[in-house]
Please model this.
Amino acid sequence: MFDVQSDFSQGSVKKTIFKLSIPLVFAQIINALYNIVDRIYIGHIRDIGTTALTGVGVAAPLIMIASAFALLWGLGGMPLAAIERGKKNDKQAEIIMCNSFAMLILTGITVGIILFLIKDNVLFLVGASEETFPFANDYLTICLFGLLFSMVSLGMNGFINAQGFPKIGMLTVVIGALLNIALDPVFIFALDMGVKGAAISTVISQIVSCIWVLRFLTAKKASLRLNPSSFKLNIRLIGRIAGLGISELVMKITTQVVFIAMNASLLLYGGDIFVTAGTVINSIKDIAIYPISGFSNGAQPFLSYNYGAKRYDRVCSGIRFITVVCISASIIIEILLMAFPQVFIGIFSSDPELSKVAVPLLRIFFALYAFLSFQMAGQYAFVGLGKSKQAVFFSFFRKVFILLPILLILPRFIGVEGIFWAEPISDAVGGLACYITMLITVYMPIKRDAEKMGQFIA
Model:
C-alpha cells in the first residue's frame, strides 16, 4: 500500500523526491482553492461582488493566522518523526506524532475562542470599512467553527506524507477542495446565502478532510498511528517540536501581518478598489507559490530521513535538485504572470475598473518573483534538517526586517505603487540571504561529512 518506498535512503534521489513532492504540489494548489474558489464566486455575485470580495479579503488574513498554528505542530513534528524513522526508531516517531496531535487539538480550541471574542474590533483594525465589515464578519464567524477541523487536517497530513503515502496525503486536500468547489455555487447562488454560503461550504469541506486524515492515521496500513499507548506528553519533546515548527508559523503569520498592513496602507492611499486589487493579487500569489513551496515541503521527509540515516551524500544531492526545480518553476510562473495578467485577474472579477487598477500593480508585485525560490529552497532545507534557529531567523528576516519597513515607508514617496514594490525587493534580498547562508552553514559541512565517510555525491 506504500506510494513510495518507505526507506528513503534507497533508490534514485530525483525519482524519490518527485514521488514525494508532486502529489504535495498538486495537493497544495488544490488546498489554495479552499479560499480562492470562495473569492472567485463571491467576486461574481451580482451588485455586491466587489464589496463582498473586499470584505472576505480583510477576513482572510485572520483565518490564515489562526490556521497557521497547525503548521507549528504539524511541520514541527513531521521532520523530527522522519529523522527518527531514518534511525529505525518508529516508536519514538509515533510518540512525536501523537504529541503533535494533542497540541493541535489544544491550540485549535484556544485560538478559535480567542479570535471569536475579539473579532469585531480586530476586523476594523485590519482594514474593514463600514461598508465591508458585514461581509468580513459573516465570513470569519462561520469559518471559526471549522478552524479545529482545518488545523487537524492540515497539521496531521504531513505525517501521512512522511510515511511514504503522498497520494493519500494529496487526497486529503483534493477531496475537501473538490467538495468545496461543488458546494459553493449551491450555497452562494442556489440558496442565495452569499458570503455566508461560501463560509459554510468551506467548513463542511474541512470537516470531511479531517475525518479522512484521522481515519488513515488510525488504520492498520499506517506505520505511524494515533495509538493511545503513544500519547505520552513530554514537555521537552513538545518544546523541540515547537522550536522547529515556529519557523513555518512565523513565516505564515508575518505573511498575513504584512497582508494586513498592506490592506491598511491601500485603504489609506487608494481606497476600497485598491484593497480589492491587493486581495486579488495576493490570491494569485497563493496559487503561484505552491509549486515552489509544495515541492520544497514535499522533499522534507527525504532530507530528514537521510540526515537521520547519515546518508549525507543523498542530502546534498537532494538540496541541489530541489534548488534547480524551484528556480525553473518560478521562472516559468513569472513569465506567465507577466505575459497574461488580465487573464489571471479576470478569474476573480470581470469589473473593468478593477482590471485597470490591478494589471500594472500585478506586474510590479511579481517583478522579481523568481528570487523567492531561493527562500523556499533554503528555508525548507533548514527545517528538514532540524535547524530551527536559522529557519526562524530567515522567516522573520524577509518579512519583518525587509518587506514591512519598505511597505510602510516607500508609499510616502511614490504612492500606492510603493506598497507593491515592497514584495519583489524583499524576495530578492531575503531569498538570496537565506540561500547563501544555508549553503555556507549547512550544505558545505554536510558535503565535507559525506566526503569523510567516502560517500559519492551524484
User: Anything to note?
Assistant: The CA atoms of residues 162 and 287 lie 23 Å apart.
